[in-house]
Amino acid sequence: IHQYCCGGQSANWYRPHNDCKMRYLGRDFCSVCSESTVKRIQNLVGSTIIAYSPEAQQNINICDQKVFNVSLIKPSPNTLKVTWELNGFKINSDADSTLIDTSLLNDIDNNLKVTVEDTTLLLRDKTHNTTFTQVWNITKNRETKIKSSDSNTFCKGDSIILSVPQATDYQWSDGTRKQQIVVYETGSYSVLSYNINGCASTSDTVMIVVNDLPDVTLSFANDTICLSELPLNLSGGLPLGGIYYGDGIENDVLLPEDVVPGLQQIIYTFTDGNNCTDSTFDDLFIDVCSSTELTEISSGIKIVPNPTSGKFTIIPKNNLISNSTIQIFDNKGQLIHEAKNLVDELDLTMHATGTYFIKIVQDRKTIFKKLVISH
């Protein structure tokens, strides 16, 4: 520090150097004055970044590529050092702009930062801020993923729902303009969707395979069998290896315990190697044949009269059916009447002409009788 002059008020003045602009015209400012001048200018200007684009909104979605740039107040000579960083990695320097391509972005959120530092040697004050930054949050326009509600391979008659994340518009390969589609047929399906920023995204292609159902048939060699022929191993269903269903059927065997004479519907179901299942049915008439009736005569139970116009009486050997249950079925196997310990006359005159079957259960034994109504 040097005294400015020799006496008077100026005796209290001081200057950093003897040979500088504070004493002589045509001299340069010394380092102290230069630093003070630079600091004052920077304080007046503020950040060296006076503008930037695009605007730093919450998230910037990039469809393909986008230019980011900053406008700077540059000293002369220019001592500004510019550094661009994406997700913490340096991608550019000494440039007022940089190009961001989607290939550089993560699938999740991304952070782009530009740092501008004034590297002038005129400043030696470490407490004075000479670095300024601008940050953008960037999201990548992701590829649209199609979501399937179930397996992409299924059987004819079923369907599957294909859907994509919410967007502003959709163009499916089948022409549908909705967020989801219902698919019934074999084919390749894709979608072009547009997000709120106008970015277009083409999905992956999903292949749907719809397998045909097996050709299932059922035909009995004899469509009428006698009750006495039960149990009966069922056959006639194709392809072989299916399953038979119906009243009194267990493990593909028609058992007498739960079978009522009359028309029985037998269902045959088959599942092929693609796990596709189809079924069909055929009717089998179970009759109380003469051979069965001869056996019943020994039981001592008679139906009088038979045939009848509708009214008849069940006459046991001892004129009493005790502890018994009596059920009457039509020729379709439908229960139309039920009674216990019956000794009175029965009246079926309201029922149509045809063959009916009377089931009598007594002492754990079951007896069937055929009844013919003829008006």
Structure description:
It is a single chain. It is built from 2 helices and 35 strands. The chain is mainly beta and 375 residues long. The protein is rod-shaped.
Largest sheet: 5 strands, mixed
DSSP strand (E) fraction? 35-45%
Multimer state = single chain
Beta strands, count: 35
By DSSP (H or I, 4+ residues per run), the number of helices equals 2
Cα distance spanning the termini: 142 Å
Structural class: mainly beta
Cα radius of gyration in angstroms: 50 Å
Question: Could you provide a short overview of the structure?
Answer:
With 375 residues, the protein is mainly β. The chain contains two helices and 35 strands.
Topology:
Elements: E1 2-3, E2 14-15, H1 31-45, E3 49-53, E4 60-62, E5 65-72, E6 80-86, E7 89-93, E8 97-101, E9 110-118, E10 131-140, E11 147-148, E12 153-155, E13 160-163, E14 169-172, E15 180-183, E16 187-189, E17 191-194, E18 200-202, E19 206-211, E20 217-218, E21 224-226, E22 232-233, E23 237-238, E24 243-245, E25 249-250, E26 253-254, E27 262-271, E28 277-287, H2 290-297, E29 302-304, E30 311-315, E31 324-329, E32 335-340, E33 346-347, E34 354-362, E35 365-373
